[in-house]
């Protein structure tokens, strides 16, 4: 049988005191503290409120309706702009990622979210504060004769520590930490989305700028050709084989074509100015890079479209909305935990003496320790309403997630059909431009020999210019739809992004003389 001590085996109260044991009242306080700690340990895994079980199940299509036949469904969407094979575009994108203000703001938001996680996690640990004071004191009292009897002035030194620890019995603090972590993940997804948006914007404005350069060059070539026609018509007019009407029309058509050039130049300047801003620089900072014309970037390889379900992970705005749904779910548990009792452990140690050297003496030390419990009794339904608010906000987050996912599906389908149809249109425009080019050559040749009237030349040149200009616009549209499809599929920056380094590094933040307000 196990040993069972009797009263005779136990030390007496005097013996316990001589052995350094705690007095009876101290043992009782320690016992209560141990009971509270044990209870806290037993309930450490307790939580209230719903547990988030992952992205909600939504019915999604199994394939893209408007994807062209034989489209690749697997592949890497990272650094998709390299498929446009334009070194200057790649350079501009690299610079934009480093210095764009919107990306910098998203990085700061990530840092804020990470600090919020640390702030929430601090609730799991005790808080300790220290205090100290030194006061000069003097007191007096009235004796039997009614005369004040004063005491000598003295200095009182005091020091102490206070500690408190709220036990997370029902998981309220853990829920707050969970919500903060979900918010951090959402902020990181928002950073990815800002990068995806930035990459698409830089590529789109770059393509637009190259398109206006091509249209300017076309207008100048066409105007030069039309001026040649005007000179030919003038010669024939002076020879009596052409009318003044023909000469006026030839001059008007050339001037009309030349009038397009300033409009295109203004649009080109606006595009380059916007690129400068996207790179975090002055509007005219990149204008010099476009002094020399270059072709409109043409995609050489199709993008792997994947399947619709891939958007849950590839589209950072969808992922961010899903993380916000998880955050809203955790906040329900935090609100629910506030309806349950809370237990805190508090303790304090203080010492006082009239000499600083005596502060550490046991005779001047006092201390206290013990648990406290707070039980919600009546709040007119305030805490219950807070839970209902959190549940409604969770439903709003789900609706936002659902809407974001549906919009993502729409973006991809729209981009697929637009890209496919624009490619078909470009083929017809190329055929039309080729035929109009031949018609213009023949009509001019016939006009020079007098076998055709001037109206045929005028109409052929006008039609050729319109067809070639439309072809350039179609080439620009193809490249921009390609960029739009890459964004819609969630392709973007895959390299690590440093979000830990702050934009502004403060100096001289310790105690220092205050400067005048500015």
> Largest beta sheet, briefly?
4 strands, antiparallel
- In order across it, which strands form the biggest sheet? 1-4-5-6
Strand content: 5-15%
| End-to-end CA span | 84 Å
What is the helix/strand order?
A: HHHHEEEEHHHHEEHH
Mean pLDDT: 87
Computed CA radius of gyration, to the nearest angstrom = 40 Å
Query: What would you call the shape?
Result: elongated
Which class best fits the helix and strand makeup? alpha+beta
Count of DSSP helices? 10
User: Which stretches are low in confidence, meaning pLDDT under 50 for 5 or more residues running?
Assistant: 1-31, 33-38
Query: Count of DSSP E strands?
Result: 6
What does this structure look like?
The longest helix has 67 residues, at 172-238. A 4-stranded antiparallel β-sheet has the order 1-4-5-6, covered by helices on one side. A two-stranded antiparallel ribbon has the order 2-3. Mean pLDDT is 87; it is low at 1-31 and 33-38. It has 10 helices and 6 strands; from the N terminus they run ααααββββααααββαα. The chain has 518 residues and is an alpha+beta fold. It has helices spanning 13-18, 24-42, 87-99, 101-121, 172-238, 244-278, 311-314, 316-337, 382-448, 454-489; strands at residues 127-137, 140-142, 148-150, 154-167, 342-353, 365-374. The protein starts with 12 loop residues before the first helix and ends in a 29-residue tail after the last helix. β2 (140-142) and β3 (148-150) form a beta hairpin.
């Amino acid at each position: 049988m196990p040993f069972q001590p009797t009263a005779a085996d136990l030390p007496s109260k005097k013996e316990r005191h001589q052995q350094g044991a705690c007095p009876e009242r101290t043992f009782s306080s320690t016992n209560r503290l141990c009971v509270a700690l044990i209870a806290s340990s037993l309930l450490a895994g307790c939580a209230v409120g719903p547990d988030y079980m992952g992205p909600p199940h939504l019915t999604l299509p199994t394939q893209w309706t408007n994807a062209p036949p034989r489209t690749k469904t697997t592949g890497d969407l990272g650094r998709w702009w390299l498929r446009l094979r334009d070194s200057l575009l790649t350079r501009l994108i690299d610079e934009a990622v480093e210095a764009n203000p919107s990306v910098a703001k998203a990085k700061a938001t990530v840092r804020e979210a990470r600090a919020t996680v640390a702030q929430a996690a601090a609730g799991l640990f005790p808080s300790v504060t220290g205090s100290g004071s030194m006061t000069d004191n003097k007191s007096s009292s009235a004796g039997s004769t009614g005369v004040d009897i004063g005491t000598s002035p003295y200095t009182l030194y005091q020091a102490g520590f206070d500690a408190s620890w709220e036990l997370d019995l029902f998981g309220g603090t853990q829920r707050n930490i969970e919500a903060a972590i979900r918010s951090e993940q959402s902020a990181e997804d928002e950073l990815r989305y800002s990068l995806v948006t930035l990459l698409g914007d830089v590529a789109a404005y770059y393509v637009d700028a190259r398109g206006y350069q091509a249209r300017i060059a076309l207008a100048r070539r066409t105007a030069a050709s039309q001026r040649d026609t005007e000179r030919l018509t003038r010669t024939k007019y002076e020879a009596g084989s052409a009318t003044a009407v023909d000469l006026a029309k030839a001059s008007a058509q050339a001037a009309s074509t030349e009038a397009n050039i300033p409009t295109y130049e203004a649009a080109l300047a606006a595009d380059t100015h916007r690129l400068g801003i996207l790179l975090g620089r002055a509007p005219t900072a990149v204008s010099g890079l476009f002094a020399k014309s270059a072709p409109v970037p043409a995609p050489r390889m199709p993008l792997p479209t994947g399947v619709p379900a891939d958007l849950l992970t590839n589209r950072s705005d969808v992922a961010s909305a899903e993380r916000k749904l998880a955050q809203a779910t955790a906040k329900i548990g935090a609100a629910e935990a506030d309806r349950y009792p809370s237990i805190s452990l508090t303790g304090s140690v203080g010492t006082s003496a009239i000499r600083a050297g005596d502060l550490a003496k046991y005779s001047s030390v006092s201390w206290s320790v013990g648990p406290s419990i707070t039980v919600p009794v009546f709040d007119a339904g305030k805490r219950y309403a807070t839970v209902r608010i959190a549940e409604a906000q969770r439903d709003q987050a789900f609706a936002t997630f659902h809407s974001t996912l549906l919009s993502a599906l729409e973006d991809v389908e729209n981009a697929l059909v637009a890209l496919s149809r624009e490619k078909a249109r470009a083929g017809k425009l190329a055929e039309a431009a080729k035929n109009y080019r031949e018609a213009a050559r023949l009509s001019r040749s016939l006009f020079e020999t007098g076998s055709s009237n001037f109206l045929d030349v005028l109409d052929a040149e006008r039609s050729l210019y319109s067809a070639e200009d439309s072809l350039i616009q179609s080439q620009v549209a193809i490249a921009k739809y390609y960029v739009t499809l890459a964004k819609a599929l969630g392709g973007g920056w895959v390299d690590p992004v440093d979000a830990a380094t702050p934009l502004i590094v403060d100096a001289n933040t310790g105690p220092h003389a205050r400067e005048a307000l500015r």
